[in-house]
Amino acid sequence: MIFRCFFSCLILFLLSCKSEKPTEITGPIITLQNTSTELELFGEGIVSTALYERDIAISQNGNELVFTLGDFKQNNRCLVILSNLEGNWSQPQILPFSGKYQDIEPFFTTKGNRLYFASNRPIYNDTTRSDYNIWYVDRAEDGWSEPIAMDTLINTTADEFYPSLSDNGNLYFTTTKVGGIGREDIFISEFQNGKYNPPFPLPIAVNSATYEFNSYISPKEDLLIFSSYGREDDLGGGDLYFSIKDDNGNWTEAENMGSKINSNKLDYCPFIDWKNQSFYFTSERGTELHKPIKCVEELKEIADNVLNGYGNIFRIRLESLDKINSYLE
To answer: What number of CA atoms fall less than 13 Å from residue 263's CA on the CB side?
Structure first.
């Protein structure tokens, strides 16, 4: 009897994993509207869970949401999608091209017909390669195409991460390649005459001798939000900073986004949903303990809690970010 019950449950589990038609969420509802003016956890129990979530991307029409989901140690990371089906959000599902390699950091183009991401999958038919590179998939009639690697002008044997594109096609990304200013830097490759030009690092107003990574560029290319670690004004663990492009086309000196956003833990992976005027980012902040743990059950409860110190996705209404709004007005 026990074996029969186990076998039946196993069959149901396998069928649910193989289901190609998204099913509607029967639990809490996700909404992209009505973001709070105070920092809030996004999609608790659906997007933000006790596992490790990071780097969110939302299509411009608001009908698709993609984020990275990993296990506790981030040894396995996949791209997960939720789709809005006639007003109802689907259950989270791993994208069909993901799940075998480390796939992270999605970014939709403005029209939503292309999804960029970073991956350590073998590249250029070289099975020995395991560095991170920038890939993309194009929307097809029956879903998404097979992943396509950007060419060697962008992808090198160093690591390339976190693609972000402005409306004119200019590509911003993180890399450890030679020619940068620090240990990790933000580079730009300008898109001109239908092709990408050799990338170069952003100036010292943005990059420093330490770590700059995970930059988000606004569609108009006038606002850059990124993470940095090791600066003197870092609140701890890595903070989010921003820079504004001035009237002369130069990036202003980067500023810390302050304690309203940053914590003493790692805060990174910025994204703006312009349609709904919401700012998203990932944070490793967790519940602060104010008393000793006295039993194993308490420890397990803390570990299973959403705010257990692994990555979660937070958001806040864009108008609440006074520093940024004062520049953009």
So the answer is: 16
Contacts of range 142-146, beta carbons closer than 8 Å, 24 or more positions apart: 143/96, 144/95, 144/96, 144/97, 144/115, 146/97
Q: Is 238 helix (H, G, I), strand (E, B) or coil?
A: coil
Note whether 199 and 187 are within 8 A (CB).
yes
**pLDDT truncated to tens, each residue of the chain (329 aa)?**
443 443 344 334 434 454 445 544 443 478 999 999 999 999 999 999 999 999 999 999 999 999 999 999 999 999 999 999 888 899 999 999 999 999 999 999 988 899 999 999 999 999 999 999 999 999 988 889 999 999 999 999 999 999 999 999 999 999 998 888 999 999 999 999 999 999 999 999 999 999 999 999 999 999 999 999 999 999 989 999 999 999 999 999 999 999 999 999 999 999 999 999 999 999 999 988 878 999 999 999 999 999 999 999 999 999 999 888 777 66
Beta bridge partners, 104, equal 118
Residue 13 sits at φ, ψ, to 5 deg, of -65, -45
CA angle 287, 288, 289 (to 5 degrees): 115
User: C-alpha angle with apex 71: 65 to 76, nearest 5 degrees?
Assistant: 85
- Residue 56: CB partners within 8 Å, gap ≥ 6? 42, 47, 65, 66, 67, 106, 269, 271, 280, 282, 313
- Cα distance between residue 176 and residue 159, in whole Å: 6
Which one-letter amino acid corresponds to residue 303?
A
* Short-list 252, 251, 208, CA closest to 233: 208
